[in-house]
Amino acid sequence: MPFKPADNPKCPKCGKSVYAAEERVAGGLKWHKTCFKCGMCNKSLDSTNCTEHDGEIYCKNCHGRKFGPKGYGFGGGAGCLSMDAGAQFQENAN
């Protein structure tokens, strides 16, 4: 019988095989330690500050900015008020 290597899961970010010694698990997927970064700010993540949305991982701050409630009253005080309309978070900004 010929040798058949184990079928390792692929990292969603880079598409390469993820081995047990280097894996991080989030959202039911296995990631490389070096690929386990926020999809917006590129900050390194760990199990305490990681949030998954549609196959992409984010830090809790960026996830709240991109997918959280919008509008007046959700900022938490005058320090959070801004004239930014959030155009950088829109998928199809026209």
UniProtKB/TrEMBL annotation:
Gene Ontology molecular function terms on file: actinin binding; metal ion binding; structural constituent of muscle
PROSITE patterns recorded: LIM_DOMAIN_1 (PS00478), LIM_DOMAIN_2 (PS50023)
Lineage: Eukaryota, Metazoa, Ecdysozoa, Arthropoda, Hexapoda
Matches recorded under Pfam families: LIM
Claim: Heme is one of the keywords in the record: no
InterPro entries, per database record: Znf_LIM
Domain LIM zinc-binding, first and last residues per copy: 9-69
Species per Swiss-Prot/TrEMBL record: Epiblema scudderiana (Goldenrod gall moth)
Main location: nucleus
Cellular localisation: Nucleus
Database matches in SUPFAM superfamilies: Glucocorticoid receptor-like (DNA-binding domain)
PANTHER family for the chain: MUSCLE LIM PROTEIN MLP84B, RHO-GTPASE-ACTIVATING PROTEIN LRG1
Any GO BP annotation: muscle tissue development
UniProt keyword Metal-binding present: yes
Name of the protein: Muscle LIM protein
Keyword terms: LIM domain, Metal-binding, Myogenesis, Nucleus, Repeat, Zinc
GO CC annotation, single: nucleus
